[in-house]
């Protein structure tokens, strides 16, 4: 039995807390944000069939949801100090890599939606044959025309699409920050808690025994 106040015991308890409490919080946030992004993406796709996949970033939300599920799986695995089981190491590595992938996907989603939102603020739109046709510069006959199919009312389409784009930017930005913090915490948990707290402690104890002998 280990006495109270043993530094090794305290460090292991700190490792256990770092390994369980933070991933649970991050997994819950990722699940909520990923679900929101996915639902908004499919709602945007239902507004007009001509919207591109990059403008309806449900794919970013799906990736973040998968990351959260891996986080929940990691919480179900019994804790082993210093990652002594291959399953624990594999799940942690998958969570780290998928969080990095989710970070990249959310940043791309923010970039695409921000670009589309800036374009829509400069659009001049007219309803023509059950479609909404928008131009950046009506005075230029060679200006590119953006066509939104299945839109009988340009006013409602542009207002709803602007709202959805803003929400996508906010949710994806928060999801990117959560994935970044998850990657940082997993890196800290791996390289600043286990190796410093567990691996080097027996070395100092061995040196003390050698000096006594």
From TrEMBL:
InterPro entries: CD20-like (IPR007237), Sarcospan (IPR030429)
Keywords, comma-separated and alphabetical: Membrane, Transmembrane, Transmembrane helix
Topology versus the membrane: Multi-pass membrane protein
GO CC terms: dystrophin-associated glycoprotein complex; sarcolemma
Ranges that cross the membrane: 24-47, 59-81, 93-114, 165-187
Pfam families cross-referenced by the UniProt entry: CD20
The keyword Ubl conjugation belongs to this UniProt entry's keyword annotation: no
Metal-binding as UniProt keyword: no
Compartments reported by the entry: Membrane
Protein name: Sarcospan
């Amino acid at each position: 039995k280990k006495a109270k106040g043993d530094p090794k015991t305290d460090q292991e308890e700190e490792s256990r807390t770092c390994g369980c409490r933070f991933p649970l919080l991050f997994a819950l946030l990722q699940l909520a944000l990923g679900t929101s992004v996915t639902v908004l993406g499919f709602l945007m796709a239902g507004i007009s069939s001509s919207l591109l996949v990059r403008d309806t970033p449900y794919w970013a939300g799906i990736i973040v949801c998968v990351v959260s599920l891996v986080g929940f799986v990691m919480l179900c695995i019994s804790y082993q100090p210093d990652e002594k089981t291959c399953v624990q190491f594999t799940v942690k590595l998958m969570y780290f890599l998928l969080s990095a992938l989710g970070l990249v996907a959310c940043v791309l989603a923010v970039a695409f939606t921000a670009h589309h939102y800036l374009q829509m603020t400069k659009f001049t739109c007219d309803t023509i044959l059950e479609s909404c046709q928008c131009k950046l510069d009506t005075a230029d006959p060679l200006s590119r025309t953006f066509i939104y199919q299945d839109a009988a009312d340009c006013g409602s389409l542009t207002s709803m699409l602007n709202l959805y784009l803003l929400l996508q930017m906010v949710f994806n930005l928060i999801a990117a920050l959560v994935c970044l913090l998850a990657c940082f915490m997993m890196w800290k948990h791996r390289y600043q808690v286990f190796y410093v707290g567990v691996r080097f402690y027996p070395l100092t104890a061995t040196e003390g025994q050698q000096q006594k002998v």
